[in-house]
């Protein structure tokens, strides 16, 4: 079998599993088994894919055997393969977590098919080498996320969903506009081909204009300053499993798209474009963390921290040195696992403590010490406490900032780290440490949490492992960053017919 | 002709943004519709406005001779129209349902989650 077919598997498997679970819509047992097995199959495919990409370099699949640049290509470079692996981990964790948390009512209304469709869209976006195809995958994952967001139909969900839908559709329209202008400029949609042809465009201002349109479109999706307002208005409204998969993956698709276009295509006027990225990164970090400081609902605190963390990832791209890109890729790897896990833990806090409001929670440490440990690991990793994964991610980025002499960015990054710790300690003090408030709120009858503990425990173990085995992860990120900094390799893999 | 189209597209974008900035949900929806149409027309125009030259290869020839309309741009628009239609259909249902739940179409009253 031609190994390049492998690249399509992370997209095809969720689509097939999604279609099968749609057939079994009324059979909850079958849907759940399909959910776990399907996401596990994607995980295996993702591991094989990253292994093959690591050994053999960038892999390309010409869909339908139409040669590039005329047909659509799927490309698995190391960044794409890493993202697919992270999406697969998140997807698998979500499927296991959903076993015990998703209500039957939602399962009947297509929770599992939508989840698989979402994962297919995310993987498609990470693997495609065609800019219009990227738009299509964005829409696929958006439509699935719209439907997941409003399952339940409560007032808060409706209000959040209107903002989420409107701003994401605006972003898609800007993305489409940018694609249109780019096509008019270079007459191609294949990203590698575009990168080649952009070097021959006589009017660099026009290229920068298109680049800025892409920047705005992807920044809305990534929830970067000043375009993030849809995120804290909507991410805390759906059920926790959905919040977790959104928090882990969706904004990171925007970040990935920024990394892709601003390393492959728009590198002509780095002084200008990446300077703007730098300022956006700094303000994204700052506003996110300050927003979190004013919140007293666990999921809303965590939502604001997504924004501040996006700032760090953009910082890696903005500095645009080898070390900074390594830091950025490392940060993405660390962040997706930690963030999804924190939302999972928040869901368990709700089930065991009865509320998401810090004022109503309390005494969880005494009653559930295991949960307290499971909260501490991702929370302190998010804040960057050694030896957890977040410490190394922040350390690499800040070292890169010092080397690039971006003093302001470094100062803000350190300050934001401190404030993240403040937010996490706030949750710790209120929910776990202080005595349970009187009168105690009613907690539903006890139930078996094994699946939930397994999910969060596994993700927490990964966080610890990324910290302990930081060196091999660093080498992986380094190789991915090298590929990003030498777009020639990507271009040759796609256009040179190398498979 | 291209200039005329450019002005039209600019007006459509402006109208769309203006409508989206209004408080009414229905106007928001009209804004979204105008926006997707504006983007489609933009692609149509930047690919070059050609009349009466279909991209057909003449009998016996290997490639298209002379200028021709760009079929790829039209394929893109077709895809974008279908996607836009689906997404807007969802938006209509969402706004209708939101109106039933919240009992208002004033966006200013939907601040519960901010």
TrEMBL record, chain A:
It is a multi-pass membrane protein. It is found in: Cell membrane; Membrane. Its main location: membrane. The chain crosses the membrane at residues 6-26, 33-52, 72-97, 109-128, 134-152, 164-186, 206-228, 240-262, 274-294, 306-326, 371-393, 405-425, 451-477. One of its GO terms (cellular component) is plasma membrane. InterPro entries: CPA3_Na-H_Antiporter_D, NADH_UbQ_OxRdtase, ND/Mrp_TM. GO terms for molecular function: NADH dehydrogenase (ubiquinone) activity. The keyword Endoplasmic reticulum does not apply. Residues 130-420 form the NADH:quinone oxidoreductase/Mrp antiporter transmembrane domain. Pfam families: Proton_antipo_M. Coiled coil: none annotated. It comes from the Bacteria. GO terms for biological process: ATP synthesis coupled electron transport. Keywords: Cell membrane, Membrane, Transmembrane, Transmembrane helix. Belongs to the CPA3 antiporters (TC 2.A.63) subunit D family. NCBIfam families: PRK12663.1 (NF009306). This is NADH dehydrogenase (Quinone). The lineage of its organism: Bacteria, Pseudomonadati, Pseudomonadota, Gammaproteobacteria, Alteromonadales.
TrEMBL record, chain B:
It comes from Alishewanella aestuarii B11. Belongs to the CPA3 antiporters (TC 2.A.63) subunit C family. The chain crosses the membrane at residues 6-21, 28-49, 72-95. Its main location: membrane. Keywords: Cell membrane, Membrane, Transmembrane, Transmembrane helix. Pfam families: Oxidored_q2. This is Putative monovalent cation/H+ antiporter subunit C. InterPro entries: CPA3_antiporter_subunitC (IPR050601), NUOK/Mnh_C1-like (IPR039428). GO terms for cellular component: plasma membrane.
């Amino acid at each position: 079998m031609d190994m390049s077919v492998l690249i399509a598997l992370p997209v095809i498997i969720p689509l097939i599993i999604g279609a099968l679970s749609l057939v079994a819509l009324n059979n909850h047992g079958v849907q759940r088994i399909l959910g776990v097995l399907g996401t596990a199959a994607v995980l295996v495919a993702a591991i094989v894919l990253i292994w093959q990409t690591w050994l053999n370099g960038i892999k390309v699949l010409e869909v339908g055997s139409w040669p590039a640049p005329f047909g659509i290509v799927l490309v698995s470079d190391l960044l794409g393969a890493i993202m697919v692996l992270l999406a697969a981990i998140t997807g698998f964790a979500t499927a296991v977590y959903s076993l015990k948390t998703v209500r039957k009512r939602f399962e009947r209304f297509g929770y599992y098919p939508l989840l698989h469709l979402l994962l297919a869209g995310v993987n498609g976006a990470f693997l495609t080498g065609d800019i219009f195809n990227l738009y299509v995958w964005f829409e696929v994952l958006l439509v699935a996320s719209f439907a997941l967001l409003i399952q339940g139909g409560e007032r808060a969900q409706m209000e959040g969903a209107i903002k989420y839908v409107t701003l994401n559709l605006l972003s898609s329209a800007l993305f489409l506009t940018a694609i249109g202008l780019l096509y008019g400029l270079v007459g191609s949609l294949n990203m590698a081909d575009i990168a080649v042809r952009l070097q021959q465009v006589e009017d660099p201002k026009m290229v920068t204009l298109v680049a800025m349109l892409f920047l705005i479109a992807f920044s809305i999706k990534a929830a970067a300053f000043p375009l993030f307002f849809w995120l804290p208005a909507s991410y805390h409204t759906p059920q926790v499993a959905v919040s977790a998969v959104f928090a882990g993956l969706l904004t990171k698709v925007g970040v990935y798209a920024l990394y892709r276009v601003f390393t492959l295509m728009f590198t002509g006027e780095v002084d200008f474009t990446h300077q703007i990225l730098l300022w956006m990164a700094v303000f994204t970090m700052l506003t996110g963390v300050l927003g979190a400081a004013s919140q007293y609902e666990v999921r809303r605190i965590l939502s604001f921290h997504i924004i501040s963390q996006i700032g760090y990832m953009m910082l890696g791209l903005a500095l645009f040195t080898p070390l900074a890109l390594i830091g950025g890729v490392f940060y993405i790897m660390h962040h997706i696992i930690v963030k999804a896990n924190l939302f999972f833990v928040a869901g368990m806090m709700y089930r065991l403590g009865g509320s998401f409001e810090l004022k109503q929670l309390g005494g969880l440490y005494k009653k559930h010490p295991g949960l307290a440990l499971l909260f501490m690991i991702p929370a302190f990793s998010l804040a960057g406490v050694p030896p957890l994964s977040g410490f190394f991610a922040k350390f690499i980025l800040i070292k890169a900032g010092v080397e690039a002499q971006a003093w302001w960015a470094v100062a803000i990054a350190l300050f934001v780290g401190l404030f993240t710790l403040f937010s996490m300690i706030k949750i710790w003090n209120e929910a776990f440490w202080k005595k349970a408030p009187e009168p105690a709120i009613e907690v539903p009858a006890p139930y078996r949490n094994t699946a939930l503990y397994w999910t969060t425990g596994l993700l927490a173990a990964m966080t610890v492992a990324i910290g302990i085995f930081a060196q091999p992860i660093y080498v992986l990120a380094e190789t991915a960053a090298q590929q990003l900094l030498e777009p020639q390799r990507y271009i040759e893999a796609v256009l040179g017919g190398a498979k | 002709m291209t200039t005329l189209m450019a002005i039209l597209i600019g007006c459509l974008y402006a109208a769309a943004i203006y409508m989206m900035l209004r408080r009414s949900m229905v106007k928001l929806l009209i804004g979204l519709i105008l926006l997707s149409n504006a983007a489609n027309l933009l692609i149509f125009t930047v690919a070059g406005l050609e009349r009466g030259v279909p991209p057909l290869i003449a009998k016996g020839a290997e490639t298209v001779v002379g200028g021709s309309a760009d079929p790829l741009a039209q394929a893109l628009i077709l895809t974008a129209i279908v996607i836009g239609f689906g997404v807007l259909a969802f938006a209509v249902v969402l706004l209708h349902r939101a109106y039933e739940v919240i009992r208002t179409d004033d966006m200013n009253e939907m601040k519960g989650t901010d």
